[in-house]
Write a structure and sequence with these properties.
heterodimer; A: alpha/beta; six-stranded mixed β-sheet; four-stranded antiparallel β-sheet; 10 helices; about 25% strand; globular; B: alpha/beta; five-stranded antiparallel β-sheet; 8 helices
């Protein structure tokens, strides 16, 4: 059985308030290697805040997040030095933003966006960086003939696929995704989801994905957490949460979706 | 009796919070045991809870009370209390489920849909594709369709893709919900053959078969699911 012993990331008691508004209330979660976990809920439920706190981009008032590194060491994400956290974000972690402009460098060519991440982890040979970048563009269904173009000339769906290539090229162990299909047309979303599904399986990634798209979560995630008002109100196997929801809010969420 | 899957006091009800919290009891104290190599057909009137029982066994519905004991990788596991990650491993290695409808994944080719559960178990890609091709061919799905996503296929064709996917991994426990519902006589005969082969190979099979001919051919016995009288 492959229920690996140690989780990659483990959070306990995460609590954060914005003024009087509870953004996170005693949130606990863990994610294991090879697992795709979706965090669903409507706008304002705290799901994006949770992703930012888990990835160290935002600090909780209370609670801890521990990361089990590739080197075997367990580190407190909010206790580590900023330099180490930045290193993690460049190497063992990836972050896919809702808006590709937040994850790409818009003034740099498509190939450069992918190659830059490789150089940041020590790749130096120009020819092999360029070849690897071209291979990744192909993998996310972007014609490598366009690798010298700036992403400003790409459609929204292409920009998002480019951001994914840029994120995955360094083979992270854990990827955070914030509404990766958010601003895209439905047909473009389907293509992106299908591509993500293949990549996640091929690379054996652990993914924490925040989405309000229940159908996308069903397609991608093994496990699901439902958030409301900063709390996790229900969690479990994706198909069980969606087909046999227990909490009144989950029942409302599921019944509001067309054919999820 | 040596069993592959067994329930003890399995009960299930649904609480509908959006309908004023009304509770619908569906299963009460179900005691079902199925041995390796045995096929049990669930019987009972429509609405008695046959599909609900199947979904509880697969973990798609949570058990309200009781235990669901399964032999998995040499150990006995209570699915009613299993962690989601254990449930994933159980579904990959031990427990298969063929529902009435295929959940179509956009843009994924039929052959890949069928080969996927084999790849997840670590079968080599070529062997997985060979087995997928053989099953699809046996279920009379023309080779020219194997490379296409099944979204545009007919109901009967989609059901055959679903069956190929369900039979491909040779699960030790197989749940079949109306596996022949939209099939013609030739394909029904193929499914009967697949079920018989699975039994010979030692699989425990639990099925809902509305087709009396199929039921009589494959089922060793019936298990009656009783409707719960409506609460006053």
């Amino acid at each position: 059985m492959s229920a690996a012993a140690a989780p990659l990331l483990e959070a306990e008691g995460l609590t954060l308030r914005f003024g009087a508004i509870p953004a996170l209330e005693e949130v606990a979660l863990a994610i294991w290697p090879g697992e795709v976990v979706a965090i669903v809920g409507e706008s304002g439920s705290g799901k994006t805040t949770l992703l930012r706190v888990l990835s160290g981009l935002m600090r909780p008032e209370r609670g801890t997040v521990r990361y089990h590194g590739a080197d075997g060491a367990v580190r407190d994400v909010h206790g580590m030095a900023e330099s180490r956290r930045r290193l993690l974000h460049r190497t063992e972690w990836g972050f896919v933003h809702q808006n590709p402009r937040d994850g790409l460098r818009m003034g740099v060519s498509a190939g450069g966006n992918v190659g830059e991440r490789l150089m940041a982890v020590g790749a130096r040979h120009y020819g092999s960086i360029r070849a690897e970048a071209a291979a990744w563009l192909r993998r996310v269904e972007i014609d490598p003939a366009r690798m010298d173009e700036a992403p400003t000339r790409f459609s929204g769906g292409m920009q998002q696929r480019l951001q994914i290539a840029r994120t995955l090229v360094t083979r992270p162990r854990l990827v955070f995704m914030d509404e990766p299909t958010g601003g895209l047309d439905v047909s473009v979303q389907a293509r992106l989801l299908d591509m993500l599904r293949g990549l996640v399986a091929d690379l054996d990634l652990a993914v924490l994905i925040v989405t309000h798209d229940i159908a996308a979560a069903r397609l991608l995630a093994h496990r699901m957490l439902v958030m409301r008002h900063g709390r996790v109100v229900e969690q479990g196997l994706t198909d069980r949460v969606l087909d046999d929801p227990q909490h009144p809010y989950t029942q409302l969420l599921v019944s509001s979706v067309l054919a999820a | 009796m040596r069993y592959a899957i067994r329930t003890e006091g399995l009960s299930k009800s649904f609480t509908l919070h959006l309908q004023g919290g009304v509770t619908l009891p569906v299963l009460h104290d179900v005691e079902l045991a199925v041995a390796p190599g045995e096929c049990v057909a669930l019987a009972g009137p429509s609405g008695a809870g046959k599909s609900t029982l199947m979904r509880c066994l697969y973990g798609n519905y949570g058990a309200g009370a009781g235990r669901i004991l399964l032999r998995h990788g040499g150990a006995e596991i209570d699915l009613a209390a299993a962690d989601p990650r254990v449930m994933r491993a159980v579904r990959r290695d031990t427990l298969g489920y063929v529902s009435q409808f295929l959940r179509v994944i956009p843009r994924v080719a039929t052959l890949d849909i069928v080969a996927e559960p084999l790849l997840a178990r670590g079968v080599a890609p070529e062997a997985a594709r060979d087995r997928a091709t053989a099953l699809l061919t046996r279920l009379n799905l023309p080779a020219k369709l194997h490379g296409l996503p099944p979204a545009t296929f007919s109901g009967g064709e989609q059901q055959r893709v679903n069956l190929a996917r369900g039979f491909a991994p040779r699960y030790p426990v197989l749940l079949l919900d109306e596996p022949t519902a939209s099939l013609d006589a030739a394909n029904r005969a193929t499914v009967i053959g697949l079920i018989e082969e699975a039994k010979h190979a030692g699989a425990a099979v639990i099925g809902i078969f509305h087709d009396a001919e199929v039921r009589e051919r494959v089922a060793d016995r019936l298990f009656e699911v009783h409707p719960i009288p409506a609460a006053a």
